[in-house]
Design a protein that fits this description.
binds zinc ion; mainly alpha
Length: 108
């Protein structure tokens, strides 16, 4: 976590993702990985903690994988609002514009 209390790095575990995908045989490893990454990005933007349902549920089972497969596993309205708020706040308080942080290679 940085000084704001929000994290800046997450991990995903491919073995656990593969095991979950194999356990239910509903969604592919790639689909579970993508939604897991979205879940982790949710943590980076709205903080720790989980909800009782949806993409921010702590442990996914058959119901979540079926929703994931149908592309119905989503952030709830509060989570979407919090994510948009965080992105706007970070954009507005960023001291360095994103393009200024990119360095062009010296030999171009
Ligand atoms: Zn989580």
């Amino acid at each position: 976590m940085d000084g704001t209390g929000y994290g800046f790095m997450v991990d995903t575990y491919c073995d656990a993702i593969h095991e979950l995908a194999q356990l239910y045989s509903i969604a592919s490893d790639d689909q579970v990985l993508g939604y897991t990454m979205a879940h982790e990005l949710g943590h980076l933007l709205i903080g720790p903690g989980h909800r009782s349902d949806g993409i921010m549920r702590a442990a996914w089972g058959r119901q979540e994988l079926e929703s994931l497969k149908r592309r119905h596993l989503t952030f709830n309205a509060w989570e979407r609002s919090a994510i948009v708020h965080q992105l706007r706040m970070r954009r507005d308080t960023s001291r360095v514009p994103i393009e200024a942080g990119l360095q062009r290679p010296q030999n171009e």
